[in-house]
């Protein structure tokens, strides 16, 4: 099983850029929590802290795809440093105003700048995999590997952020997260041999935005609902464990979800499946709907833990198949932009579902909040079913391109369809 992963990691430059991406993506799971811990400590207000985290996430989700279109047009090496040039002083200013002043409005403004200038590292890395393996069955394995890295980041990042903020200083988590982002991103963009070719200046102004390409909006909508699952089950689980008199168990239960997702990702990524990606995606969302629906009905902590473990198993195939399908149907000169729309969808879903679950908990209790999770799962399958025909047409109509490596450089060979 692991041999399939080793094969893709042995490709020239692959291990270097995926490890650089891992370091940079630690910021994803640490920055929001770090901002909450910093502002809750310095302001004594979770409302202010939550507002900053929301502004950070939403600005990244809205601006990210537009910047990624420029990256597709002009290249990672030319655009990403400009993002870092804005991001680093914005975070430095945010921390300074939070620690040394009582003013909130500068913190809100700087959160907008920091979020909107955050590089979409996951999309940058996946675009490099596509450049190496476009049209190859190994690409799904590569995307599965990246999904495993995402799982690892979200398993390790939150407890690390908590330790840094509580044991060193409240600002430490956000500072270390930013250092990881900048260091990893610089290491990534200096690796020129695996950088996807720039599409050219005309790509920035011509053609439709990636979100309007066939199939992209449907996949993004499903990823919004996936984000809703992630955002709601975490809040509901913490509250449910507290209601059951076992608040310390919440972290373990959340880890079970991540472990289930991680294990499923390893297996799914190693499989060679003949079914079209559109059919795999539909089937995966169907399974996700089935396993998330019972969560609000379980009622006991150990049953919820088991249910979330199973739900985690169902999660990875949706993410992997959706990303692989997106790569297959989107032209290479729109790929980074399209993948950033996916990431933005997840972020928007989390940003909306987390407070929604909180409102439900306050009014009706934690168990009822799992209906937000279940509803997102069912809606994800419903959307997948509605857009399936268009996804299938885009899937079967895409021209496959096989990449071969010659002297360490990818060359494209168009394969005619029968």
UniProtKB/TrEMBL annotation:
PROSITE patterns noted in UniProt: MFS
Regions crossing the membrane: 21-40, 46-67, 79-99, 105-127, 148-166, 172-190, 211-233, 245-269, 281-298, 304-326, 338-361, 367-388
Coiled-coil stretches noted in the UniProt entry, renumbered to this chain: none
Membrane topology: Multi-pass membrane protein
Coiled coil keyword on record: no
Top-rank lineage group of the source organism: Bacteria
Subcellular location: Cell membrane
Alphabetized InterPro entries for the sequence: MFS, MFS_dom, MFS_trans_sf
Domain Major facilitator superfamily (MFS) profile: 211-418
Gene Ontology MF: a single term: transmembrane transporter activity
Keywords for this protein: Membrane, Transmembrane, Transmembrane helix
Gene Ontology CC terms: plasma membrane
PANTHER family hit by this protein: MAJOR FACILITATOR SUPERFAMILY (MFS) PROFILE DOMAIN-CONTAINING PROTEIN (PTHR23542:SF1), PTHR23542
Record-given protein name: MFS transporter
Lineage: Bacteria, Bacillati, Actinomycetota, Actinomycetes, Nakamurellales
């Amino acid at each position: 099983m692991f041999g399939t992963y080793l094969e893709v990691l042995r490709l020239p430059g692959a291990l270097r850029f995926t490890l650089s991406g891992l370091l940079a993506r630690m910021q994803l799971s640490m920055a929001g929590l770090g901002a909450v811990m910093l502002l809750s400590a310095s302001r004594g207000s979770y409302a202010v802290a939550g507002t900053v985290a929301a502004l950070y996430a939403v600005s990244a989700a809205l601006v990210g795809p537009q910047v990624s279109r420029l990256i597709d047009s002009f290249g990672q090496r030319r655009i990403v440093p400009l993002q870092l040039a804005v991001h680093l002083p914005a975070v430095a200013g945010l921390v300074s105003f939070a620690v040394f002043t009582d003013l909130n409005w500068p913190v809100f403004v700087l959160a907008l700048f920091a979020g909107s200038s955050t590089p979409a590292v996951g999309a940058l890395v996946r675009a490099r995999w596509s450049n190496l393996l476009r049209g190859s069955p190994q690409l799904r394995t590569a995307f599965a590997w990246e999904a495993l890295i995402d799982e690892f980041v979200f398993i390790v990042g939150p407890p690390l952020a908590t330790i840094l903020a509580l044991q060193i200083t409240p600002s430490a988590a956000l500072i270390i997260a930013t250092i990881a982002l900048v260091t990893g991103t610089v290491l990534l963009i200096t690796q020129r041999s695996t950088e996807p070719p720039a599409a050219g200046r005309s790509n920035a102004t011509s053609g439709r935005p990636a979100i309007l390409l066939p199939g992209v909006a449907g996949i993004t909508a499903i990823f919004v609902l996936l984000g809703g699952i992630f955002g709601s089950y975490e809040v509901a689980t913490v509250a449910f464990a507290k209601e059951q008199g076992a608040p310390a168990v919440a972290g373990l239960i959340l880890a079970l979800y991540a472990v289930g997702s991680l294990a499923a990702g390893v297996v799914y990524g190693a499989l060679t499946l003949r079914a079209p990606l559109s059919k795999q995606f539909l089937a995966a969302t169907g399974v996700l709907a089935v396993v998330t629906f019972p969560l609000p009905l379980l009622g006991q902590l150990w049953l919820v833990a088991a249910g979330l473990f199973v739900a985690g198993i169902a999660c990875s195939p949706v993410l992997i198949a959706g990303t692989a399908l997106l790569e297959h149907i989107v032209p290479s000169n729109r790929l980074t932009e399209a993948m950033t729309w996916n990431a933005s969808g997840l972020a928007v879903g989390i940003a909306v579902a987390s407070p929604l679950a909180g409102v439900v908990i306050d009014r009706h209790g934690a168990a009822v909040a799992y209906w937000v999770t279940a509803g997102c799962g069912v809606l994800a399958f419903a959307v997948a079913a509605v857009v399936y025909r268009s996804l299938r047409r885009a899937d079967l109509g895409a021209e496959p391109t096989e990449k071969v490596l010659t002297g360490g450089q990818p060359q494209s060979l168009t394969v005619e369809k029968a």
